[in-house]
């Protein structure tokens, strides 16, 4: 009886708890359902907002500027930067040391070949020359006398031979002393323009001390480098045009005179030298110059403004405008570009003449996008654009 009673009591105690457990499960399911429903509603709301924003953006038709690709004659040109140098140039200096006694030039003077520029003090050099000349004269007299005695059999042949040797030695000493005197006179080795005077009267000059620079300025040489790929296009006699920042708007014509005998193994560049006439002395050695050379015969290429091409790591492209019923749409077109000149770039592949391309507003475009064309302001498409002058 006791056991049965206890079991019944336990059953009575646990019986009311079962409805509470089911209630908790139902509440949890309802909570999960509410969370899931909220997430679905939020996702639908977000998608709706995105669709509205996208539709609003797509509804705005971007405005672009356009240009028409044209077929134009194109002259292939080689361009490089070079350095001017004189056709002949030297820093003049005395061969031996001495004190400056006479200066016969002024800075910037134009001199002829052989003109005396500077003399060093001779000291006792002239006296030594006269002494040696006297010895040579005596040797000549002795030789003449002994030759007459030899014909009369008054002296031996060996005596005459010794006299002849003494005369030659004496004359050689005279020539050596005369060379010493001549070395103390500095002359212009060629005609040209002098630079700034670097010495003064009374100054002691060590051998090799520069006194002035002498440059032959007409013609001038311009040395420049071209890649080895241009070797087949550069020949002696090729016409070049030289321009300098010092003379804007002025071009100096010239011709290629020589090509280096080897290509630089480090840079794979070929050194080229051209000769440029310089009658007015406007060009000076050491100036920086831009060199342009026409290579080959002109040919016709499709050209567009530089602004029409978008350069990317994966390729260059343009947006071509097509008519789709009553609206204008753009198509992405990859192109192969060639050389550029001024505000133009040549198109080797990908475009045809009369194709209409976008020149402004590309950042707003995508493939098959509708556009509105407004060419009130056009991008420059000049082969040789001029720099606007301030008024």
Q: What is the domain tally? A: 4
Mean pLDDT: 83
Number of helices: 4
Which overall shape is indicated by the principal axes computed on the Cα atoms?
Answer: elongated
Structural class: alpha+beta
Low-confidence stretches: none
Portion in beta strands: 35-45%
Quote the distance from N terminus to C terminus: 125 Å
Tell me, what is the CATH class of the largest domain? Mainly Beta
Number of strands: 21
Gyration radius (Cα, Å) is 47 Å
**Percent helix range:** 25-40%
The biggest beta sheet is recorded as: 9 strands, mixed
Order of helices and strands: HHEEEEEEHHEEEEEEEEEEEEEEE
CATH fold group of the largest domain = OB fold (Dihydrolipoamide Acetyltransferase, E2P)
Task: Provide structural commentary.
With about 400 residues, the protein is an alpha+beta fold. It has 4 domains: about 15-60; about 65-75 and about 300-375, conserved putative lor/sdh protein from methanococcus maripaludis s2 fold, CATH 2.40.420; about 90-205, OB fold (Dihydrolipoamide Acetyltransferase, E2P) (Beta Barrel); about 215-295, Elongation Factor Tu (Ef-tu), domain 3. It has 4 helices and 21 strands. It has helices at about 1-15, 15-60, 125-150, 155-185, and strands at about 65-70, 70-75, 75-90, 100-105, 110, 115-120, 185, 190-195, 205, 210-225, 240-245, 250-265, 270-275, 290-295, 300-305, 310, 315-325, 325-340, 345-350, 355-360, 370-375. Strands 1, 2, 15, 16, 17, 18, 19, 20 and 21 form a 9-stranded mixed β-sheet that branches. A 6-stranded antiparallel beta barrel has the order 3-10-13-12-11-14. It has a 4-stranded antiparallel β-sheet with strand order 7-6-4-9. α3 packs antiparallel against α4. The model has no long low-confidence stretch (mean pLDDT about 85).
């Amino acid at each position: 009886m006791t056991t049965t009673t206890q079991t019944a009591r336990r059953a009575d105690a646990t019986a009311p708890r079962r409805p509470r457990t089911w209630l908790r499960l139902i509440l949890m399911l309802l909570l999960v359902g509410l969370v899931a429903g909220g997430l679905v509603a939020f996702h639908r709301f977000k998608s709706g907002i995105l669709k509205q924003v996208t539709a609003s953006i797509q509804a705005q038709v971007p405005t672009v500027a356009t240009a028409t690709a044209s077929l134009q004659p194109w002259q292939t040109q080689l361009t490089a930067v070079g350095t001017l140098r004189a056709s002949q140039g030297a820093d003049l200096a005395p061969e031996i040391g001495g004190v400056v006694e006479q200066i016969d030039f002024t800075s910037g003077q134009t001199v002829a070949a052989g003109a005396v520029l500077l003399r060093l003090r001779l000291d006792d050099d002239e006296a030594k020359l006269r002494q040696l000349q006297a010895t040579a004269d005596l040797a000549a007299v002795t030789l003449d006398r002994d030759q007459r005695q030899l014909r009369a059999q008054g002296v031996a042949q060996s005596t005459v031979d010794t006299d002849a040797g003494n005369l030659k030695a004496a004359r050689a000493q005279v020539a050596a002393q005369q060379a010493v005197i001549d070395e103390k006179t500095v002359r212009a080795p060629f005609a040209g323009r002098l630079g700034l005077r670097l010495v003064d009267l009374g100054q002691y000059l060590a051998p090799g001390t520069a006194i002035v620079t002498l440059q032959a300025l007409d013609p001038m040489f311009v040395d420049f480098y071209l890649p080895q790929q241009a070797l087949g296009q550069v020949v002696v006699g090729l016409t070049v045009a030289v321009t300098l920042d010092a003379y804007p708007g002025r071009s100096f014509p010239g011709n290629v005179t020589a090509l280096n005998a080897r290509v630089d193994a480090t840079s794979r560049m070929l050194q080229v030298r051209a000769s440029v006439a310089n009658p007015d002395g406007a060009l000076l050695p050491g100036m920086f110059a831009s060199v342009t050379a026409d290579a080959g015969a002109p040919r016709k290429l499709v050209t567009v403004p530089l602004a029409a091409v978008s350069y990317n790591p994966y390729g260059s492209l343009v947006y071509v405008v097509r008519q789709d019923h009553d609206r204008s749409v753009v198509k992405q077109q990859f192109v192969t570009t060639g050389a550029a000149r001024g505000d133009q770039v040549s198109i080797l592949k990908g475009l045809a003449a009369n194709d209409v391309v976008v020149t402004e507003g590309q950042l707003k475009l995508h493939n098959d996008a509708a556009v509105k064309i407004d060419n009130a302001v056009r991008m420059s498409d000049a082969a040789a654009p001029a720099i606007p002058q301030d008024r």
